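Suppose a colleague, Dr. K., hands you the sequence of a protein chain of 662 amino acids and asks what its three-dimensional shape might be. Before reaching for any lab equipment, you can write down a predicted structure in token form. Begin with the sequence itself:
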Amino acid sequence: MCIITRAFLLAGTAWFAADIAAAQSSNTDIQAVETEAGEDEEIIVQATRSRRRVQDEPVRVEVVSREEIEEKILMRPGNVATILSETGGLRVQVTSPALGAANIRVQGMDGRFTQLLADGLPLYGGQASSLGLLQIAPTDLGQVEVIKGASSALYGPSALGGVINLVSRRPGRAPEAEILLNATSRNGQDATAYLAAPLADGWGASITGGLHRQRRQDLDDDGWIDMPGYRRATARPRLFWNGEEGQSLFVTLGAMTENRSGGTLPGRTVADGSAFPQTQRSTRYDGGLVASLPVADTVSVNIRGAAMRQNHRHRFGAVAERDRHGTLFAEASLAGESGGSAWVGGAAWQEDSFRSRSFPAFDYSHRAPGLFGQLEQKVGGDFTLAGSARVDFHNRYGTQFSPRLSLLWRPGPWTVRASGGRGFYAPTPFVEEIEAAGLSRLEPLSGLRAETARTASLDLGYRRGPVEANVTLFGSWLRGTTELEPFGIGPSGQPERVRLVNIVGESRIRGSELLLRYRWSDLTVTGSYVHVRATEPDPAGGRRAKPLTPRHSAGIVGMWEQKDRGRIGVELYYTGRQPLDDSPYRTRSRPYVEIGMLGEIAVGRARLFLNAENILGTRQTRYDPLLRPARAADGRWTVDVWGPTEGFVLNGGVRLRFGGAD
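The predicted structure, expressed as tokens, is then:
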């Protein structure tokens, strides 16, 4: 780690010295925020295409600010999972205990329905892999935008459950650099660096890099790795330009490589006496651009494009799988404003492909050209109506129509939003169980139809002085959702194959979210509660509760912070019982509580931090084994993860900052 630290420091010093002269002669401020007298910073959101203030959006967009991101970076510098897991209505669900893979469930909907974007672009693929979430460091994030509910009207078939948009930091008025070094009590290390500078004539640039390492851990000494080991390196340069007449250009490139290992330790076996190592080698390359060109006083042409290629080399016990995922995306639109109206219309094209050297029967290429439109209209002083619609011409699942209608009413300190929409999802082999077990036991896909959903929400917010409150009621009705069913009987007398089928009937999700926040001087206290009631058709008849969906979850966070001095935070989260599917040990999980504490102190340019996660040491393997007594039909040797698997973890380090505008 000393060599890594020295390299980052030398690179940062050389870069800073080379660009300081240019910074002194430039007064360009490439920021996406506005400040009004007497008000907090008001954030401009990108996920809805209209680039309005978050307060003025008829569609509710929840924004995790840079200040909150900085707090979460100190807890988990290596990935964005912590930032998302502590956002109300979002649940990070571990899908593969062997490799630590996880996806994001929005308001009880499966993680494959969540579209993960970077600066509005699908840089992680149309269906981001479950490991993709754990390969994104939050170092260079400026904000995170979350839209819940069917968003196919905005982003097509990959956004059935919602959209999470990771927005990068923009260079400021002066060059700046940031280096973070972190180590954990579980033998993990992170080193990340962020460099940014304004250039001449409205140009700006940034580059982010990271090295991350975790040594594998068997916490309960059963021979199965509870915390997978990995080594990962990432790099992402970005280029920004703002013209004097409203033109803008954003270009990004990214590269990532990772080796990850889990499963059985050398010399150890699973229940049938065989070794079962699981490994994955990943490489990903991506690139994208966003451009805007005014063609009249209130009309502009907007272009977006992206390409991603990801190669995998998997091992599931004795089975090796090699495959390639790819995404190509292009969009052109025309946007304008007139009086109280704002509109966007355009065309998009996206191709998501998969090629397997080991199991070519699962190869696919989904192409979906589409047309979309969006109109926002102010009605009176306090009302805004917004409607959007999209038609996708999918090469495999036919023509799909996805509308969405939203209403905003702002009487005084109150904000009322109502929204409803429809969307669709194009099924692929990669449901959660297949992400964990591979393709070797899956029958080739046949006769599947598109998964569809209708979602609705009613949101009531209040903000005055130090008090902020929000209540949301939501519901989802899904048809044609896919699941694995056992198929065929093996030599053991039990099914040893599975096939993917559409469920007959409707899955239903209803729930509510409550958020309360109080700010007093340097102290902020936030409380949240989420209630979800999710049911789905039972193959045996009737209905059953949706597995791995807690009915009740709640949290309270207190954070004291003074600029240039430090911060102290305490958090407590409660997760209620969850129905479990096909577990040999129990039908419902145990409720559990997680407590964490964070401290940071500023010493000159350095900030020293120490963070304690899961102080009570809650761990699923304290109650049940993670390993099954027999292999499941889909190939998994592990049960579903319903609680923490890492136990108590202490991490700490230093963050160094150089330059930047005051």
